[in-house]
């Protein structure tokens, strides 16, 4: 029998045992066991050694099981142990701990590499379950929750499972929306504090789902990061922004558009290829694109970020350090960052007139940026007094609701043409 036939047989035995427990109202714990880091082991010790370790682990797991228990192998790295006759959850925890020791013994005995670990998801056969399929699904959800939260042992909990399933549903909807291009860029104007004219805008992603309505960026950006779509989202923004700049050329030439990025993007030279492609397709001057990167993103991998940002600037696009003041970059590193602009975080700007501490942060950030040859943008500007104070401090540009809230794509150009004169 091949491996697939062996695994299918194992699933069949597990299902039969669970169904029997349900029919007899017997207590039964389902432990779904996943062996972590197998890919790392294959790369370091080879597939043959990895296979030997997994076979040894299965044999040890079978030896651990009592006569009334069932052990089944569901895939090359996933096993299930059906444990009956337990006294309480503590008893089940002890069994899980023994399983954790078994994988250490198996890997430690056969390789000098770092030992493997397991994640175990646990579901108990009890009402309202009426099928083995539901029990196994709950154990699988508990396993996934354990892997997501980095907990080696996780009992099934309805709320956590519901949240995870809802997140998957949202992630699939987001992936579909991104693929179909059903996301929209809003543009928040950026004002020159000397001329009081609009010189650019920050592009902000918005998502309206027909079923769920408006989804907060705080929610879907997190979903994009967890589902591995955040880089594609950044690339989508670049393409859409370039298309819009091309459309604005005849009536609003000279505007810049700032695009937010993530730590992953600033460690990927692919963004330069996307910039080259998008600006060529839409016949856009690279200097009209500003790539915004946060302080914390820079510090995630300073050397690689430096190389990528240098490449972006060499191509001709601009770089802006976003949310300045909220991160942990040192002054020594800051002076080396290949950037054109520094954005002072709104949390300091909004309270600068009433909080002396925030005022000092804005003042010193502006002075520091100027000493490093960077332009300065203040976010969160709420009134004319802030505009005047920021100008007096030497700040170059301002964004905020006093100037204008983020506007849908269709509304930005009419607003700009109407306001193409000093704003304050």
What kind of sheet is the major sheet? 8 strands, mixed, barrel
Flag low-confidence runs.
1-8
Strand content: 15-25%
Total domain count? 2
The strand order across the widest sheet is 6-7-9-10-11-12-13-14
Report the CATH architecture of the largest domain. Alpha-Beta Barrel
Radius of gyration: 28 Å
For this structure, what is the CATH class of the largest domain?
Answer: Alpha Beta
How many H/I helices? 16
Task: Name the shape in a single word.
Answer: elongated
If you had to describe this structure to a student in words, what would you say it looks like?
The protein has 424 residues and is of the alpha/beta class. The protein has 2 domains: 3-156, Alpha-Beta Plaits, CATH 3.30.70.270; 169-418, EAL domain (TIM Barrel, Alpha-Beta Barrel), CATH 3.20.20.450. The protein is 52% helix and 20% strand. The chain contains 16 helices and 15 strands. The chain has helices at 3-24, 38-45, 47-64, 89-110, 132-149, 158-180, 217-226, 230-252, 270-281, 295-300, 302-315, 331-334, 346-349, 356-371, 384-393, 409-418; strands at residues 28-35, 70-73, 78-84, 118-125, 153-155, 184-192, 198-209, 213-215, 256-260, 289-294, 318-324, 341-344, 375-378, 397-398, 407-408. The strands form 2 sheets. It has an 8-stranded mixed β-barrel, surrounded by 6 helices. Strand 2 (70-73) and strand 3 (78-84) form a beta hairpin. Helix 1 crosses helix 5, helix 3 packs antiparallel against helix 4 and helix 8 packs parallel to helix 16 (409-418). The protein is elongated, with a radius of gyration of 28 Å.
């Amino acid at each position: 029998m091949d491996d697939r036939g062996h695994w299918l047989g194992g699933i069949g035995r597990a299902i039969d045992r669970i169904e029997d427990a349900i029919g007899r109202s017997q207590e039964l714990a389902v432990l779904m066991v996943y062996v972590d880091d197998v890919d790392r082991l294959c790369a370091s010790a080879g597939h043959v050694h990895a296979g030997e370790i997994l076979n040894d682990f299965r044999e040890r797991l079978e030896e651990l099981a009592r006569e009334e228990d069932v052990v089944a192998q569901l895939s090359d790295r996933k096993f299930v142990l059906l444990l009956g006759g337990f006294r309480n959850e503590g008893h089940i925890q002890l069994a899980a701990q023994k399983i954790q020791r078994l994988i250490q013994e198996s890997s430690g005995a056969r390789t000098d590499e770092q030992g493997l670990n397991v994640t175990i998801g646990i579901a108990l056969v009890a009402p309202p379950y009426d099928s083995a399929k539901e029990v196994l699904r709950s154990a699988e959800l508990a396993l996934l929750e354990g892997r997501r939260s980095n907990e080696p042992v996780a009992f099934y909990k309805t709320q956590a499972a519901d949240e995870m399933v809802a997140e998957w549903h949202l992630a699939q909807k987001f992936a579909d929306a991104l693929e179909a291009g059903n996301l929209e860029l809003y543009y928040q104007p950026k004002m020159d504090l000397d001329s009081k004219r609009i010189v650019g805008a920050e592009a902000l992603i918005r998502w309206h789902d027909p079923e769920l309505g408006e989804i907060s960026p705080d929610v879907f950006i997190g979903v994009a990061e967890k589902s591995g779509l955040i880089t594609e989202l950044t690339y989508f923004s670049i393409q859409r922004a370039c298309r819009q700049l091309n459309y604005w050329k005849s009536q609003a030439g000279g505007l810049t558009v700032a695009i937010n990025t993530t730590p992953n993007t600033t460690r990927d030279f692919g963004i330069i290829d996307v910039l080259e492609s998008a600006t060529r397709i839409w016949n856009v001057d690279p200097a009209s694109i500003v790539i915004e990167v946060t302080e914390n993103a820079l510090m995630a991998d300073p050397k690689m970020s430096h190389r990528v940002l240098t490449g972006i600037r060499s191509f001709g696009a601009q770089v802006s350090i976003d949310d300045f003041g909220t991160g942990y970059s040192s002054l020594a590193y800051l002076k080396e960052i290949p950037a054109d602009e520094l954005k002072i975080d709104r949390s300091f700007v909004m309270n600068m007139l009433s909080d002396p501490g925030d005022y000092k942060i804005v003042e010193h950030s502006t002075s520091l940026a100027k000493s490093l040859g960077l332009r300065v943008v203040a976010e969160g500007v709420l009134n004319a007094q802030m505009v005047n104070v920021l100008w007096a401090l030497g700040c170059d540009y301002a964004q905020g609701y006093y100037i204008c809230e983020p506007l849908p794509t269709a509304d930005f150009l009419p607003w700009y043409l109407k306001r193409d004169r000093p704003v304050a």
